[in-house]
């Protein structure tokens, strides 16, 4: 939270305590109730994308409390130039892998473009598939007041919903590209959308590429957590695509902080392997069976 409000908030649970979201003890899955309680405690927490069982296991064991199987898989897994083309069947398969690879994290699945916009009934069919076939614990969808009927239908059916406002990548063609959203009067519209989504039953809302001051206002106005991505430091949580934060993405957005250089490490490793194969240095007796 911002400095103007943090002084009145309770101290967050220490990392590693049974109640802390980040670094909490392994055991039962994190739930949407845990997310709500973290907001009450003033506790900040991280969310990371995951698309396969191996990385899900690593992030889960690192204490990441929420894993998002984002439609960003369209770009970082399947090589498309936007999130729009990825089919629902592909994301269901990835979600199932992340659920199998994790033990504690709450796994949230993105509803891809075209799988919920038509009607609440379509949204319920799509979300039910993620819950039944993949074992997802919640779903995420993009949009404000225009998707309130979908949010209400899903919540009424017992499906937790994470909302997504600001730069919603599935609407990139309407926005005219990946641009900051919520400046000027449109910021008031975003605030109204956020309040409406909370009232409809969403348990959290992602704020993507919005001015930091607006994100702070929304965070203070809502009783549900905000999850920032390019939305400044005052959101309740932060999320990044794991390939971005690990340094695999060639040209990441401004809001990304690179925490590793996996691209360089992987390039060096595969070239060392190739050189050993060409020279005959690998495999040796140590790596051979008798």
TrEMBL record:
<dbReference type="GO" id="GO:0008168">
    <property type="term" value="F:methyltransferase activity"/>
</dbReference>
<keyword id="KW-0808">Transferase</keyword>
<feature type="active site" description="Proton acceptor">
    <location>
        <position position="208"/>
    </location>
</feature>
<feature type="region of interest" description="Disordered">
    <location>
        <begin position="1"/>
        <end position="24"/>
    </location>
</feature>
<keyword id="KW-0460">Magnesium</keyword>
<keyword id="KW-0479">Metal-binding</keyword>
<dbReference type="Pfam" id="PF02548">
    <property type="entry name" value="Pantoate_transf"/>
</dbReference>
<dbReference type="GO" id="GO:0000287">
    <property type="term" value="F:magnesium ion binding"/>
</dbReference>
<feature type="binding site">
    <location>
        <position position="140"/>
    </location>
    <ligand>
        <name>3-methyl-2-oxobutanoate</name>
    </ligand>
</feature>
<comment type="pathway">
    <text>Cofactor biosynthesis; (R)-pantothenate biosynthesis; (R)-pantoate from 3-methyl-2-oxobutanoate: step 1/2.</text>
</comment>
<feature type="binding site">
    <location>
        <position position="110"/>
    </location>
    <ligand>
        <name>Mg(2+)</name>
    </ligand>
</feature>
<feature type="binding site">
    <location>
        <position position="71"/>
    </location>
    <ligand>
        <name>Mg(2+)</name>
    </ligand>
</feature>
<dbReference type="InterPro" id="IPR015813">
    <property type="entry name" value="Pyrv/PenolPyrv_kinase-like_dom"/>
</dbReference>
<feature type="binding site">
    <location>
        <position position="110"/>
    </location>
    <ligand>
        <name>3-methyl-2-oxobutanoate</name>
    </ligand>
</feature>
<comment type="function">
    <text>Catalyzes the reversible reaction in which hydroxymethyl group from 5,10-methylenetetrahydrofolate is transferred onto alpha-ketoisovalerate to form ketopantoate.</text>
</comment>
<comment type="subunit">
    <text>Homodecamer; pentamer of dimers.</text>
</comment>
<keyword id="KW-0963">Cytoplasm</keyword>
<dbReference type="GO" id="GO:0003864">
    <property type="term" value="F:3-methyl-2-oxobutanoate hydroxymethyltransferase activity"/>
</dbReference>
<feature type="binding site">
    <location>
        <begin position="71"/>
        <end position="72"/>
    </location>
    <ligand>
        <name>3-methyl-2-oxobutanoate</name>
    </ligand>
</feature>
<keyword id="KW-0566">Pantothenate biosynthesis</keyword>
<comment type="similarity">
    <text>Belongs to the PanB family.</text>
</comment>
<dbReference type="InterPro" id="IPR040442">
    <property type="entry name" value="Pyrv_kinase-like_dom_sf"/>
</dbReference>
<keyword id="KW-0489">Methyltransferase</keyword>
<feature type="compositionally biased region" description="Low complexity">
    <location>
        <begin position="1"/>
        <end position="20"/>
    </location>
</feature>
<dbReference type="GO" id="GO:0005737">
    <property type="term" value="C:cytoplasm"/>
</dbReference>
<dbReference type="GO" id="GO:0015940">
    <property type="term" value="P:pantothenate biosynthetic process"/>
</dbReference>
<dbReference type="GO" id="GO:0032259">
    <property type="term" value="P:methylation"/>
</dbReference>
<protein>
    <recommendedName>
        <fullName>3-methyl-2-oxobutanoate hydroxymethyltransferase</fullName>
        <ecNumber>2.1.2.11</ecNumber>
    </recommendedName>
</protein>
<dbReference type="InterPro" id="IPR003700">
    <property type="entry name" value="Pantoate_hydroxy_MeTrfase"/>
</dbReference>
<feature type="binding site">
    <location>
        <position position="142"/>
    </location>
    <ligand>
        <name>Mg(2+)</name>
    </ligand>
</feature>
């Amino acid at each position: 939270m911002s400095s103007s409000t943090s002084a009145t908030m309770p101290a967050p649970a220490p990392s590693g305590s049974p109640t802390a979201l980040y670094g909490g003890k392994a055991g039962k899955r994190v739930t949407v109730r845990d997310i709500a309680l973290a907001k009450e405690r003033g506790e900040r927490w991280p969310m990371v994308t995951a698309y396969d069982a191996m990385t899900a296991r690593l992030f889960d064991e690192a204490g990441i409390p929420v894993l998002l199987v984002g439609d960003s898989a369209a770009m970082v897994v399947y090589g498309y130039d936007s999130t729009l083309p990825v089919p629902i069947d592909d994301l269901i398969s990835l979600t199932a892998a992340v659920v199998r690879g994790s033990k504690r994290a709450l796994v949230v699945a993105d509803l891809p473009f075209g799988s919920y916009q038509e009607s609440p009934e379509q949204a319920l069919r799509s979300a039910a598939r993620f819950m039944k076939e993949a074992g997802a614990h919640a779903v995420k969808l993009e949009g404000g007041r225009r998707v309130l009927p979908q949010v209400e239908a899903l919540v009424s059916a017992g499906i937790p919903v994470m909302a997504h406002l600001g730069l919603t990548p599935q609407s990139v063609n309407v926005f005219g590209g990946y641009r900051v959203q919520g400046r000027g009067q449109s910021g008031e519209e975003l605030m109204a959308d956020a309040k409406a989504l909370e009232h409809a039953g969403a348990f959290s809302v992602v704020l993507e590429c919005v001015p930091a001051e607006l994100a702070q206002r929304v965070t203070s106005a809502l009783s549900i957590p905000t999850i920032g991505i390019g939305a400044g430091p005052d959101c309740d949580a932060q999320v990044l695509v794991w390939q971005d934060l690990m340094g695999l993405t060639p040209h990441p957005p401004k809001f990304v902080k690179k925490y590793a250089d996996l691209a360089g490490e992987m390039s060096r490793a595969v070239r060392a392997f190739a050189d050993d194969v060409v020279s005959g240095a690998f495999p040796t007796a140590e790596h051979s069976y008798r």
